[in-house]
Structure formats: structure tokens, C-alpha cells
Structures
1.
Amino acid sequence: MNTDSSKNIHQGRNVKRFREMLGLKQEALAYALGEDWSQKRVSLLEQKEVIEDDILNQVAAILKVPVDAIKNLDENGAINIIANTYTNNDNSSTLQGHYINYNPNFNPIEKIVSLYDEKVALLERLLESEREKVEMLRKGNG
């Protein structure tokens, strides 16, 4: 097994993180791993700091993530990256030079009503076009 204990990476917690990000329950992962597996066994797997390579390869394939992602995801490093790139200034934020507005200046209900009105106008134009076609056909056959 290839681990770097100085990084203190907990592979079981990383499996749990990826599984939860994908919205997969322990039972579903157990089912995908085969009949020798149960929810309890997956739970025990997620408690292991170091997971055997063959099992890790299976889990990574099921979760569709690289094995190295499970082996190298360092929670502390991720927290440091977030802390160093994210600042909160009351109602706005800067994330790597991009301005984020947390208080949008539009009313979502007004936007829905506007989209509905556009849809009605489009349907009215379509209906008028169909009426014109019917009228042209009547004149042509008359």
C-alpha cells in the first residue's frame, strides 16, 4: 500500500466524502461491491485510515473517481485553499478576483411572470400565424 503518513490522509473518510457527494447510500455501494458486502462492512471500510489497494480500486471505479483522488484528498489542504481564496465582506465576496453578489437586484417572482408573459405573446403570434395559413388555404380552395 502506498501511503504518506506525514500527510495524515484518511482514505475511509475520503471514500465517504465522495460517496456522499454522489448521493450514494452505503447500501448502494455495498450492492455495487458484490454479495460479500453489506452496509455494515461499508461503514467499517469508511472508518479505515488506509484501505487495501484492490478494494480501493473497486470503490474508485464504482464512484467513478481516480484512485489517487481518494488516496490524496487532504481535508486540511482543501480548508486552507478555501480560507485563502474566499473572503466575506458583508453582502459581497471576492473569490479569486471575481465579484459575487449575494443580494440579487431582481425579484424571482417578477422574473417568472415576465417569462410567462413572453410565452403567452409567443403563443399568440403562433396562433395568428396558423390563422393566416388557414385563411390562405380557404382562399386557394374557394
Note: Helices lie at 11-21, 26-33, 39-47, 53-63, 67-72, 75-85, 108-141.
2.
Amino acid sequence: MPEALARGVADLFPCGAAAGSASDGDQQLAARLQEAASEGRPLRIKLGIDPTGTDIHLGHSILFRKLRAFQDEGHTAVLILGDFTARIGDPTGKSATRVQLSAAEVEANAETYLQQLGQGQDPAHALLDFETPGRLEVRRNSDWLSGLDLPEVIELLGTTTVGQMLAKEDFANRYGSGTPISLHEFLYPLLQGYDSVAISADLELGGTDQKFNVAMGRDLQRHFGQRPQFAMLLPILPGLDGVQKMSKSLGNTVGLAEDPLSMYSKLEKVPDAVLSDYITLLTNLDLAGLPANPRERQKALALEITGQRHGLAAAQAAQADAAKLVGGAAGVGAADADVPEASMDGVNFPAKAFYLLSAIGICSGSSDARRQIQGGGVKLDGIKLADPNQEFAAATELEGKVLQIGKKIFRRLVAS
């Protein structure tokens, strides 16, 4: 199997048949790939995403990068937008029933996902190739799930047991603790699995937390007389804290839509403990060919990923600006650095420092802003803000100055 397809894979199943056996094509992915090549047909590679939010971050991008690797090998990526299943909500990793979204909310989210994945963009800088004929199908699972009638739903329910559902760790934990499980949640793995039947998937991509759902797809394909898909699972990316998984709710993410400076500044501070994982899962860089010094590896990682999203020139400019803003003396480098702007239009002056940080959106709220200032992590043009109650009389006093939180977040203050 090509290195680009095997890189970073945590689990691949099945993979048990002895080489040369008649069932190789159903038991070994390498044999299925060879079989497809000899027949001159691409494999159909499934990746399903539920548009339950608006932002895609680097943790999500691991699966899309692998999908792109299959595209580049000549296979057909089948991207399933779970506009129907998103309205149920994947129970994986949840300790309570998820809030159900409306169809309009899901569709709006789906459109933002496609834009972030590269729809209408040059494939050279897009996460997925939307342009090359035959390389991508974008499907919405409402096309087949919304038309299922009650006998068909009963047939799906008849393919598994309550015991099998309770073998899923999340369900087992909730059942054991007495936390309610709604019956519609049992439908989610079945409907997600039926997606594999609807598109005749040869292989499904998923995170290691999706093993139950992906295996369900194999079971349903057998039930409906199809060759079962292979399952390729990839690791869950740790967040910028290096401990918990990357999650917007934990504030440890790097978003695909972030500006070059923010992206570079965050990535060049990735903890040493997870640096190799980031390089392996988010780049094609050869670990053996990189400097042994962790600091140089951080810079190489940050430059590579920022370049993937924004081009090499923008990444190099971000690298230079980050060095000016973090390494210079007070105010040095801030004037000519390309820093994302933050409007003060919504700020009521005179304004205290903690209120300013909250009002321009650089902190999640007044309490967060106070904590950041008291912790010594906030600077204005390189000068530390020590008092959350420091007052600024007017926007003109701050116009053009760079507000910094830690070594990762920079915003140039503008009046409009």
C-alpha cells in the first residue's frame, strides 16, 4: 500500500487473510487496491461528516487529508454530508442526549464546511480536490434516509440487538450510570452504517472513536448483499494543550479558516510531547529528515501547515511577523507586522482593559479577560497590562496598537 495511504493509520480492518488466498480482496486492503487497479476502476472511499457546527479545525482535517491522499491515488472520495443524521446527533463521546438541530441549521453549516474544505478553490491549496473529474462525490444522506418507510426502518432495527448496542462504550457508560438513552440514539449507528450501503463504499475513514459505527456499515453491507467495506481509523489529534483532544469547547484548536499569523503562532508552540504526532498526521514531512531540535521542528511544522492553507509566501511572512512580535522589545516590529485586525466599533469608551478584551472578542468574556491580565499574559504593543481595571479614554488612544495574549494571539486595534 502506498506510503501516503498508510501514514499515521491507527487501525485497519479486516487484515487477516493469508497472502494468495482466494479471499484476499475481502480481507486485505492491498489486495482490494490491486484488484481495482487491474480492473481499471477506482475504489469508493467514504467519509461521513455531520455538519453540527460551523468551523473545521486541524483535528478534523486528519481524515480529510487521508481522503485527499486516496483522491491523489486516483480513487473516488465520497464525502457524505450527514444532513439527516446531524439532526439526530452522533452519541459517540457524549454523556447525554444531544440537542437536535433543524434542517436549516444543518444546511447552513454544511455550506461553510464545503467552503473550508476547498470548494471553488485551486486544488493545490485546498484540503480536498473539488476540480478533477471523478475524484469527488458530495452526497447528502437525506437523499436516501428521508425516504425510508417504516418497514425499511424495522428491517434496519432487526439487524442488531440491544445487547450489541449496549456494547458501545458510550451507551454502556450511560446505561450503567442510569443516564437516559433515547431510542432514536440507537438509530444513529444504523443510519450511518446504511450510508455505506447507499453509496457502495469500498472503504470508510473514521477516527478511532468511530470503530463501532464503521463496523456497523460492514454488517449492513453484508445484510444487503454487498462486499463489506474496509475500515481505516486514524488517531484523535491532541489539542494545543498536548493533553485533551482538539475541541473548540476546550479552546485548544487551530481552525482551518484562521489567518496566517494566528495559525503559525499557535503551531510553533505545539508541546514537544505531541510534536511528532502533529508532523505525522498533518504533514507529509519526513520525521527522519527534520532537525532533532524540538524548536526547529516546531517551526518546520508551523511553516508547513500554514503554507498548506495560505501558500508559502504568506507562511514565511507570518513566521517573520511572529518573530518580530514575540522576540522584539516593547513596540518593536508591531508597526510593520501584518496582524489581523480587531474592530473597536462595539466598544463603549471610556473602557477598562478587561472590558476591552471581552468586547473585541479576543477573550470569551470579562472573567476570562481578567484572568488573562492578572496572569501576566496580555501585552499592548509589547508592554504588559498589569491592571484589569486600567482605563482607556477613547479609541484614538489605541488605534493601530497590537494587543497580544500569550505568544499565540495578536490583534491590531482599529476604530472601524
Note: The chain has a mean pLDDT of 89.
3.
Amino acid sequence: MQNLSSNPTSAPGQYYGFSIQPTRLCFHLLQAPSGSVVSLEALDDTDVVQPDNHVQVEQAKSGLATNPISDWSIDLWKTFSNWIDAIESGQSRLEKALGQRFPQ
């Protein structure tokens, strides 16, 4: 029997990372207020748009080999950069992303 961990075509780590997204989608479907729109890979990994237009975007990261939220994680800083770009371009509003209202 072949050792799957040495098989170059095997991708259990990648699958695990992608499989987190539908799991989080199901969580949001169960928790979101009535009338919300919950999506996968539309605005981010998972998103919830509530009836009052409050938008929640979420990145799902796995940590099989490294810590995906450590300060040296390239993926973490790419996520922050993408979120900043979305806010600066007007695609996302900071006060909605934080769930708070800021004085204008």
C-alpha cells in the first residue's frame, strides 16, 4: 500500500483548507437573521448580508502546517491588504465591517 503523505498528487491539506468554507457557510446559515443573504466566495470566503445591509465578510484559514494568524503569516497580511483595498475603493464600508456607527 502506498503512503498517501508521499503522493505528490494528494492534497489533503488543501482540501481541508477549502472544506472549512462550506462548514462556516452552514454555521452562518443557521445563525444569520431572517432575510439575510449568506454566500460563499462572493465578497470573501464567506459573507453575510443582513436585511439592514450590515455586511460580514470572513476569511477561513487552516493551520495544519503553520499558524495562519501569526504576525509572520503572508496570508494574514494579504487578507488585511485586501480588506483595506475594499474599504478604500468603497466596496466595503468600515463602519459596517466593524458593526459600529462612526460619526461622519
Note: DSSP finds three helices and three strands in the chain.
4.
Amino acid sequence: MLGEYPIEGRGAADIAASVERAVGAGELDPGQALPPMRELAARLGVNPNTVAAAYRTLRERGVIETAGRRGSRIRPKPATTGRDLRPVEMPAGVRDLSTGNPDPGLLPSLAPALAAVAAEADRAPVLYGADPVNPELARIARAELDADSVPGGPVIVTSGSLDAVERVLAAHLRPGDAVAVEDPGWGRTLDLVPALGLRTLPVGVDDEGPLPGELRRALESGARALLVTDRAQNPTGASVSGPRARALRSVLDEHPQTLLIEDDHGHGIVDLPLHPLAGGTRHWAFIRSVAKAYGPDLRLAVLTGDPVTVDRVRGRQRLGPGWVSCLLQRAVVRLWTDGAVDGPAVAAAYRSRRDLLIDALARRGVASHGRSGMNVWVPVPDETGAVARLLHAGWGVAPGARFRLAAPPAVRITVSTLTPEETAPLADAMALAVGSAPARTYG
């Protein structure tokens, strides 16, 4: 059952650490079954309660999952490895369209802004006790949020979207709580939730966002929180429409205790309007990252929400890192005020690349999705076969398994750097690799 790897330890902590080390080292594979608790207890010469405590620790850390009589097994994507730590190997000469990165040519030059704020910092260094949020950054961010009808609330700064999501979840939930997540959805979120000891409940999505009926089922099944990507959903490109937002708000009105977390990482690269869901639940958070429009390495996002949520996140942040570099905050302010990014032009560039590929695939009988953002999602009958055939043809794409829970197979193509000349050959290769696929919802 466990190959050559022996689980070791006399105490619960040692047993759990033994399993976790093996998963991290690749000696226990995702999906591999663990021994029944009594069997392992007998093998190790310990009380079954000790093994039960070890398995509980592993579940809370997102390493294993338990499915009733089917027993416990290593999670398909355990937190100790992460979905993107086992990437598809790209042979030499393969065009890599799997990364999910923005086009470097559409990112602004950071040197002028960083040099200017570094000179300011030399004259007046930020010291302990300073305001953790740059007032001008908060003012600009709040004005843009107001313009997009995001409810009023204080603004704080986190080290990117995922940092904000983790802090908000930790501020309200406890191990064992369930979180409704988009399926397909952002792979790192699908790993983060179980790593916090939380359970994922999948909610299917289509081009207009999460499906209201599936959200209702998840909330009625006990989900205490909902994670939603408003625009440029990764991997499908979904964007919450006005009618869909109204339908989702109606469902949330029936469950006002739900913690709502909205991620608008597409702000600045999307030309579709925002339709926020916040306002009907007691606790909520709305997050905007600068990663896609200004560069992933800036590691900065603004977060607003209800006063209790923001206060909890700010308080915990104060006890840990303290604050996000004011140097970076000042640089972002300068980039914003200098108009370093032409948002409409960037959005138009990504839209053109998506539409060219989607149209080319459609002419070849292949259905695909990409309403916003920089990715196109292509349903396929066999992920492994499609990825392998595309690699053989010289194209690298991301297997959909990185982004799915219960959703059907698909592949994700990042079009951020795809040229018009490459579109037809890629569509030809995709048609040969997967054939035609009927249009459908993703979940």
C-alpha cells in the first residue's frame, strides 16, 4: 500500500511529521491510501488514538483527506507540495503558454518610480511606529472602489491577493469549517483552503461567474465562506455579469452570516465593468492586487471590508510582518498618479489575443472560454492525452487538473504573449489534439 516508505514515530506529532516529510520528498504520492488507523497503530505499537490524532493533524494541515469507509489518503494536491511544484516539463523548442503570467511588454518600467521613492526614503526614512498604510494610496484606492460601487470600509495593504485571502479566512474560520470555492478556480486558493485546515465545497462557474444554484447548495451544505473572482477569473476568464451578481446576492441574502471574499485581481487589465457582491453579508472583504497590471513582484494588494474583518486582519498583521513596505506603497502611488499603465489599451490587447484564439478554435469545431483576462479555458475529453499531444506539436499548456475539484477535464492556455501569427498553428494543433468539444458550464 505504501511502497517502500515506512511511516515512523511513537507520538502523534512524530507520525504526522513522518508522513509530511514523505509527501514533500515525493515518496508518498498524491492520492495514495494510508493504512487504517488500527492497522498502523498495531504496526507501530501505539494506541489507535495516537494515530487518530496524527491523521487529524495531517487533515488540518491539508496533507491528507478522509472519505468515510474509503479511509484516508494523501490529498490529490497536498499542501506540502502545491499544485504548481510539479509542472509539465517543457522540452527545448516548445512554446510555453502555461504560466499564467502577464505580458512583460505591457508592464510599466519600475525604475523611475522606485528611484524616486528611494530618494524620498533617504531623506525621510520610514521608522517603527509610522502609519502602516500610505495615506495617498488609501485615498486613491478608496476613490476607485467608490467609483465601482464597492461598499465603504477602511483600506489596508497586504502582500498580494493570496496573502489577503489567507488572512481573512484565518480571521473568521476555524479548522473543519467549509469554504465555497469556484470550480474550476485558482489553483493556489484550492491548495490554501485545505492547508488552513478548512474544507472546500466546489461551486461550478460559467462565463458569467459562479452558478447561483450550486452556490445555494454549498451554503445549505454548511459553507461558512465564499471566495469569488469578480473578473479575469483564473483559469476560465469568467466575469461576473450584472444579472448574475443580482442572482448571487439574492442567494447570499438568504445566508447573511456567510463570509464573502471577492478578488478583483483583473482591475487594470479588464474592460468589463465590475459588479461587486458585497453589501448583503455581515462580514466581507474585497481585494485588489497590482500584480497583473504593474508586475507580480510588487507583491501588493489593497483590501477593504467590514470594520470587524479589517480590524482583525490589521491586528494579526501588526503582530507578524507589521506592514507592507511603505517604499513599495509609495512606488505604486507614483505609478498610479503618473499613468504608467494605460488600462484600456492593456485590456484591449489581452482581449484581442483571447478573441483571436477563441475564434480560431471555434472555426475548427473546438469550444473554448475566455470572457476576460489573459487565459483561455478549453474543455477536453482527456487532459493527459491533450497535453502530451500538444507538447509533441510544440505547444505547452497547463493541465486543468491544477485548477479543478469536480469540474470536467480541460486545459488552460495563457494568451498574454501569443502573437497573431501563432494563433492559427496553435488552433490547428489543439483541434488535432482534442477534436471538437461541446459548449457547457464548467462545473
Note: The longest strand covers residues 199-206.
